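Why do we care about 3D structure at all? Because function follows from shape, and shape follows, mostly, from sequence. That is the central idea of this module. The next example makes it concrete: a single protein chain, its amino acid sequence, and then its structure expressed as tokens.
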Amino acid sequence: MSSIPSSVSSATNHSYEDNSITDGLVLPLADHCFHCGDPVPQPPFYTEILGKSREMCCMGCQLAAQSIVEAGLEQYYLDRSEINRTASLPTQLTRLEAYDHDEIKSQFVYAQDGLSVAELSVNNLRCAACTWLIESRLDELEGINKCQVNLTNQRMRVIWNEDKLPISRILAVINEIGYEAKPYRQDTHEAMLARHNNQMLLRLGIAALGSMQAMMYAVALYFGEYSDMLIFQRDFLRWVSLFVSTPVFFYAGIPFFTSAWSAIRARQVNMDVPVSLALIITFFASLYATITGQGETYYDSVSMFIFFLLAGRYIEHNARLKAATMANDLVVVEPVLVQKVAEDKSAAERILQQIRDNESQQSEAIEDEAKKVSGATAEIMPKFMKGIDANIYQLTSRIAQDWQQSRNQQNALSQLEEDIVSKQMVTAHSLQVGDIILVEAGSEIISDGILLSSTATVSQSLLTGEGDLIIKSQGDYIVGGAQNDSQPFEMLVTALPKDSQIGLIDRLMNRAMSEKPKLAQQADKLARWFVARILVLSVLVFVGWYIVDPSQAIWATVAVLVATCPCALSLATPIALTVSTNRLASYGFLTTRGHTLQTLAEITHVAFDKTGTLTYGKPNLLNIEIIEPVNQTDSVNSPSTAQKDTLLAIAAALEVGSRHPIAHALLTAAYQLHLPPTRAMQHYPAGGVEAMIDGMVYRIGHVNFALDNDVNSIDKNNDLTIDLVAQRASSAVVLSSQKPDSNDWQALACFYFNDKVRDSTQSMLDTLKGLGIESVMLTGDPSPQALVMAENLGIQSAYNGLSPTDKVNHIQQLQSKGAVVLMVGDGINDAPVLAAADVSTSIAGAADLAQVSSDSIILNGQIEAITAAKRISDKTERIIKQNFRWALAYNSIVLIPAALGYVPPWLAAIGMSFSSLFVVLNALRLKRA
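And the structure:
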């Protein structure tokens, strides 16, 4: 709609304007939208603008207008010269609304449980009250699910419903209360912290120069009091002191004032409110004395106060910055440019669809297993179908082979064209699922994908802590965060960089460092309570001194405001938690929940799963027991090596393409044998594999599946016994064949496997026992050998053959007796029991991270990290309590002398700064834990 001249508008709508402030305001025609000029419906929407209720045509205009008003940008309506849909909005609002654009938003917003999650960098955070102010203000907005601000690393995590609230509105609200929030990126976040650090250093330098000069003149004034200094000399020194103190007060001290004003404007108090009051009272009382020539001046106290406060915060800021950046070593900044060779969206979609289908089958299998009665499936190997992905591997191998053939054809047709294509450079953020990229030798792999080249050698030390190089074959998975340690290779991108495994690790750490344990929440609440009481107490001190000695009323009040500021109290918990969290990360123990450290310090029991937790989860073939010879010339009692090789070759052929540990063990044992071809292969969740070889149908899996038994008893093959104890095996599978002209199955052989106990398991269990912590084993393995293993390890309470429901029941029984339980599992099939425990951890490889539901993860596979976590959590609890005692003792002790006038303002500033520094330095001792 075209603009309306202001004179015509005013004549038509004169009833809108009764105030001279809005003279010249461009108004729409009657019954038209005040924001965009379109006709309004009946009834219209309304927004309060410039003191009047204005009509709006739709909810969009209403929200836009409310955003402008709430951002303090109503001047926009006074300055605009026209009303139309494309009129320029205020610069600040336009900048924030740019973050609502899908392309920009996708770089820092991700979905989680149907909600949106954003990681933001926040500038100007000074104390725990700042974090509480942001959290409480955002919690008032409709659509906010959770907001968590981390004071130590100046970051925040917000979870909200994007249908009710745009991200620009969240950023605008944060700006309104005096803080600046931007999407988090490691490189830009570090640059922001560096700029903030430089600003603090500049302010500190100005405060240092000003305080030295002010103190020099103050000494002259002090001596002048005893040597009959002339009035004009005294006044001259006072004006000079004012001159050198003014930049200290108005520039170096501005962070305290802006922070205090933001809190007051939000009807809250923070640590800077009493500090700012003390500074303002002291400075302007001195200014009054300078102008009138009556009373005393304390410019030196103002300058020194600001200097000591800034010095303390600068040292504290750098200590927190150093602690926060320790965790950044785990996550690399993704490269800006990558080489895009081509794209194959359909291939990527087929792979992802197959993964979704497999996950659905596995979920159903796990649910069915959970419904079974304990012990109903004797001899079943635990988590048998954890890795049913042979069909995925076949698909990825076929896609990789097709790509390699097409590449060879391209090379034959045009080498020049190949050179041009391979040099296409794109930004990492612009990569899409289905893109084919070239990864140079020695470079980081920025996203998950499928290897298209024939072979590659990668290092996953960043993800798993294991330094061994891993050889990948065509069609294998490549995980983001790994490093290419061989020749360049091509890969098909199956996940965006932000959704890769290394991106997930970063998000898990952010979540852990953003969430506040109960202890931290109590500290924040106590600090806010303390500030409010300090303000009340300072008023009482002023009134008391004004009655006794008015000349000391102001300075005693200032000393109370400064000396008792609970800065140390607000720092007691967050700095200790940050340092300990990062120290644990150096051990490969990644906390993913905020309560983990506090609960670890309280545990009384540790419950372990067996396979993949106490053991390596990598079984080895121990023995082949022949039940029915394939070659009738051989006997069961004296089988030939050839007979065993034949059965092993059949078993291995059935497992080709499977990633299950048992399949890996069989294929490893048969690596020199000729494997017969298979047809009509089928995978049965929680059962095994069936296929046809040379016209015969074979099965391999647990005994009931192999023999097609419906119940636990073996009624068709009473002579079949599987003795794991005698074989010293941890698990076994049965190979069977279908009898000709019958639906019955005949057992051919039993394969026994042993899963080696981790080297550090025994020492870890001994350490826990020495700490008075009881170890429990809860395993789904029904074999008696599981109990023998537990007995050999010294675990007194061991239970085997448990379903997921049984494990949860055991945990709840312990908790009902007052136990605090740590559950250690694999993070996938143990999800129910991990959630039921008070605190949980999982030993997970890189491929498992996306499904981890535990409170912490051991990335390097070293189970002894549990004892390190217990030791560090205990020390963290001790240090937090020490910090609390110190902060409370200091504030209690200094209160009385400050109120009695024995503590000058400058000494109060020194005491408060040293109190905060003591808390920070005490927490930094955790770096050596």
